Amino acid sequence: MNLQRILKLTLLASTIGALTASAKTGDKTTCTASEAGIELGIQAWTYNRITFVETLDKCAELGVKNLQAYPGQKIGGDFGDAKLTYDLDAKSIGKILALAKAKGVTLTSYGVINPKPYDSEAEWVKLFNFAKALGLRDFATESPLNNAEKTKMLPLLIKLSKQTGVPVTLHNHSATTITPEQLQQLDQLDPEKVLGICADTGHAARRGYDPLFILKLYGPRVRSVHFKDLNQMGDKDVYDVPWGTGALNAAGQITTLREIGFKGVIYLEYERRVDLPQKFAEAALCAEWGKLALAAKSCCLDRNAILPPGYVKIDDAAAIQRRADSPNWPAPAPLFNDDLSNAEFTPGSWTYKNGILTVTKGKAGDHIFTKETYGNFALSFSFKCAKGADSGVHIRCYDNKDNVQNSLEIQILQGDYPSKNPSDPANARRILGAIFDCAEPKTQVEIEPDTWHDMLIVAKGDTIRVFIDKDKVTDVKLSKWKTPGKNPDGSSNKFKRPLSDFKENPGSIGFRRANVQFRDITIEKY
Fold first, then answer.
1. Residues 381, 385, 386, CA angle at the centre, nearest 5°?
2. What does the pLDDT look like over 43-84, one tens digit per residue?
3. Are 226 and 109 in contact (CB under 8 A)?
4. Same domain (yes/no): 290, 339
5. Of the candidates 253, 287, 306, which is a domain's last residue?
6. What DSSP designation does 419 have?
């Protein structure tokens, strides 16, 4: 899907109104009431190919105030090639804190860090003092519970944490994910739960553990989270995807954290190895979704109502979206095959080249119809009209040959409807966006000849909605049309049956031939 198309679909998100991810009618809760306690942060490893100073700029750009620094990142700025390590002197620490404050960012954590040598008490003391000088909430070290020798150091960590007042958390990569057996071992060593856990939900999933299970298992020991969403579970061909679009139930992770009483920071750690512009863009999508999710009530998260940025809500089961790799929100499918093998039309009357559907030759009645039938769907496309072009889209067509009487037609028209009587009120039911002869659009959208415009048609039961560019222009209930040949206001229409007959049964989708081109034609059934 091209960039222009992406941007236009994104704009639609602000116009869906009653179709957006808001609480259902009659629900006493809303999706904008905050359940406080969980904060959003960034793990600086997300930006490991730029400096610490530049990472602060990224935090400010995304409006994220909490940062977990990582050991070894180049500091940048006046620090030259110096790196952010735990042996920095007091003056350097002061300068780093000033840099963060100037950007409105708080250093809340540091890690994942393992002192060298690991069994040196002096090194651990230095690390704890460094964290205290920075005023950190905690620092994260790799869980040693899969290594008997390293596990012997845990009593020292407990002692130093009590002495300095600096909490320490045990982080997991895939191989060091804390198992139920290891958690029991930790409880025996540390019954007071001095040691916390920095739960990396992505690495737990790579190990084969459901992140929700892991978070519930760790319970009150979860003091921070490296929050992840992945394209799939497992450790092969796995990579980060923007939050809310992957297989790890990001919304469920938020509600689970609330259930266990978590009050800390979830850190955005986006590890996918892609070009920097793409990585920056996808990290920004994570941050945007994170803000929406943390501000939402759990009831909204439970019904998957908090959409990833750029997705357009249709109803509780479907969305039109700008990304293709989303298990929760699959991409709409092309309506037509490249060779039009799934379409019915007079041979030679239509072509489909480079994704553009164009009339070539034939009679005025040579429409093109899908072989497949559709009942409830979201049909999205762009159209370009020649001056004065008169076309339309037929939906729920029972009989392609007699489509005038056996389908609903969404009008596509450049200019006003031609009539010998311009004052005829029926003209309003025949302009762009109208359900032809039956329902006029609430607004008349002016479109320019030879310019691409967008149309979105949503059919759900007896409800038909039409969006043109970013405006919803038509919203009708077919059940109001109870009498053949009559509209609810008493005016006449062409139909020999009531429009309410079209509210249940699926039918073909067709495009009426005219001087109009169509592109980016996608369909989502639900």
1. 160
2. 999 999 999 999 999 999 999 999 999 999 999 999 989 999
3. no
4. no
5. 306
6. -
